[in-house]
Amino acid sequence: MPELPEVETTVRGLTPFLEGQRLVAVTTFRPDLRRPFPADLAQRLSGATVTSLSRRAKYGIVSTDRDDHMIFHLGMSGRWRTEGGEAGKHDHLLLETAAGHRLFLHDPRRFGSVDLVNGDPLALFPSFVSLGPEPLSDDFDAAYLARALAGRRAPIKAMLLDQTIVAGLGNIYVCEALNVAKISPLRPAADVSRAKLAALVPAIKDVLIAAIAAGGSTLRDFLSPEGDLGYFAKDWRVYGREGGTCECGGKIERTVQSGRSTFHCPKCQR
């Protein structure tokens, strides 16, 4: 599933095509993805001007001068195509701009979603209300993390994947950050020392920044809006490298936590 860096890459890729542009037509080619498209999506967006694009957690937000905000989630296989042309089999939504751009939401598995909110989306969109802070924001620091994890006996990895603790983190980047910070993903969250948390926060930020700079990671068929692959996968320290060698010389192991693969090095991650 596309994680924070992939969604950030998508939003940045869409911005030159949409920001400041008037939408002349909005077309859906099926009634739904994971859930139905908003019934009035085309009516409310057609003729509107896109004022900004942003991201919250793993969602992208396209805002207009009508104070309408289209919120999209890429699901398992979604991406935006910006090369134009005609709609293909797995293109389910088309945005056309006055400048002649044709942007298609492409989603073979149809696990993505599109919603429309009028007013402040951060306050009004139900999926945003309970989210924790953005991991790249100043609100996410070691003091906050210590408070959020106090008394929590669940493994630290599970807590970092909990979107109410911190928004947007996913399996790949949590595995990577925990390796950088030398923390076992199996350790109960409340048992992670303040010193370790002080190392974990910058590790998370650095991993995400590096992944965004590389265009994300390529999982299955994720591509940027320009059709480019994400290249952070070549820099994975532990994820997907079962049996490989950690930078410390230890052997990388794979375990399963809550149905998800966890990759770590027992030698250096304690």
Folded structure, characterized:
This protein is α+β, with helices and mostly antiparallel strands and 270 residues long. Helices cover 27% and strands 21% of the residues. The chain has eight helices and ten strands. The strands form three sheets. The protein has a four-stranded antiparallel β-sheet. The chain has a four-stranded antiparallel β-sheet with strand order 2-3-4-8. Helix 1 packs parallel to helix 8 and helix 7 packs across helix 8. The protein is elongated and about 55 Å long. About 2% of the residues have low confidence.
Percent helix: 25-40%
pLDDT averaged over residues: 93
Class by helix and strand content? alpha+beta
Biggest sheet: strands side by side, in what order?
1-6-7-5
Please report the number of helical segments: 8
What's the gyration radius in Å? 20 Å
In terms of per-residue confidence, which ranges show pLDDT below 50 for 5 or more consecutive residues?
218-223
Taken in chain order, the helices and strands follow as HEHEEEEEEEHHHHHHEE
Q: How far do the termini sit from each other?
A: 28 Å
What global shape is seen? Answer: elongated
**Count the strands?**
10
Give the strand content: 15-25%
Largest sheet: 4 strands, antiparallel
